[in-house]
Amino acid sequence: VPGLYLLLLLLLPPLLHASEATQPEPCELDDDDVRCFCNFTDPQPDWSSALQCMAAVEVEIRGGGRDLEQFLKYASKDPKEYADMVKALRMRRLTVGAARVPGQLLVSLLRALGYSRLRELTLEDLEVTGILPPLLLEDSGPALSTLCLRNVSWATGGAWLEDLLQRLKPGLKELHIAQALSPGFSCAQLRAFPTLTNLDLSDNPGLGERGLIEALCPNKFPALRDLALRNTGIETPGGVCAALWVAGVQLHSLDLSHNALRSTAQGTPGCVWPRTLNDLNLSFAGLEQVPKGLPPQLNVLDLSCNRLNRAPGQDELPKVSNLRLEGNPFLDPGVLKRLEDPPISAAVSACAGSALTCVWPRTLNDLNLSFAGLEQVPKGLPPQLN
Ligand SMILES: *[C@@H]1O[C@H](CO)[C@@H](O)[C@H](O)[C@H]1NC(C)=O
Ligand SMILES: *[C@@H]1O[C@H](CO)[C@@H](O)[C@H](O)[C@H]1NC(C)=O
Ligand SMILES: *[C@@H]1O[C@H](CO)[C@@H](O)[C@H](O)[C@H]1NC(C)=O
Ligand SMILES: *[C@@H]1O[C@H](CO)[C@@H](O)[C@H](O)[C@H]1NC(C)=O
């Protein structure tokens, strides 16, 4: 818990000891004093190395998977004692990752950060153990604009998000939750998000339409503009339309890429998309045809890297100013066959560059990439081949 480490290090001179020259410093501050990165993987890490991060604007600390229980004894210190010092920190962005953190320590960190000017907090690969101590009246964590949680597990169970949000000052604009163990969160227990404009629930493959309906309660997201649902087990755009309609969300952009969408499914009958919706991303969705029930008018429709075998007809498509179709077999009939000949087609490399793979035809058995001038094995190959 870096912020806290930094504070503790200042408060607790006994912890400070000359760094041993034998091992490389766990922390590195860049030349511009902007970014500081610490990776405490050593069994006996030199914690004092984190002191140099005091000057940084962006701080990232990885705990090497260790348990931070040893710091718990300092968690009861009253943050008011070091408030002035926290106020002096330049830190705006903080990432804490790869550790087991007692809930009590996390809460102390948030309290201390309440005096900071931190705007973005990311918690990544963390296991939060034990319960979070009860909310105190003076609890008022940082005034974050962005909160990102990736692969964070909570011993407290289902109510973790509400508990966490209550410890922040109001004004959150962006919330990202990925790799949540349970389907994410149930918004029924949550208060409204009056200022939230950007919700990213990508990389929660267990979410699905049902989880989405649970996450988006009616009238709790009055300011929401951008919703990202990449790789969330969504099956039909129509199902998302229904969830948005129920929630009364006036979206501007919706990202459904990297879901295995069923193109044959009918749109939910009578579902009305938000009239504000401008951008719809349906790339990497394994679509063989344009799904039915799309919004009637869009600014951007991204259908790239699908399996469209023919050019979509005007009657299949919404009225759209910017249509993206690259990486579909109809534009490049050899998109699969061409792999046999060098050079690899631009369309395929465009699709293959993505972090998540294009959905290849499940029937594809043989792939010949010989004489292709490759310097390494391309990403995004089919998972199984003969
Ligand atoms: C931290 O160090 C460990 C061990 O050296 C390494 O495996 C890991 O990739 C590093 N983490 C980052 C984010 O650089
Ligand atoms: C998720 O975080 C845990 C630590 O809490 C870690 O052991 C695990 O490897 C992480 N999973 C992924 C997919 O990164
Ligand atoms: C659509 O999503 C894909 C994959 O997530 C991304 O590469 C692409 O840039 C997005 N398209 C637009 C128009 O933002
Ligand atoms: C792959 O293509 C190369 C060049 O066209 C050819 O010589 C080779 O026999 C092919 N490999 C297979 C397994 O068909």
From TrEMBL:
Residues of the signal peptide: 1-18
Cellular component aspect of the GO annotation: external side of plasma membrane; extracellular region; Golgi apparatus; lipopolysaccharide receptor complex; membrane raft
BP GO annotations: cellular response to lipopolysaccharide; inflammatory response; innate immune response; positive regulation of cytokine production; toll-like receptor 4 signaling pathway
GO MF annotation terms: lipopolysaccharide binding
UniProt KW Repeat keyword: yes
Membrane topology value: Lipid-anchor; GPI-anchor
Keywords (A to Z) from UniProt: Cell membrane, Disulfide bond, Glycoprotein, Golgi apparatus, GPI-anchor, Immunity, Inflammatory response, Innate immunity, Leucine-rich repeat, Lipoprotein, Membrane, Repeat, Secreted, Signal
Ranges in a coiled coil: none
Protein name (record): Monocyte differentiation antigen CD14
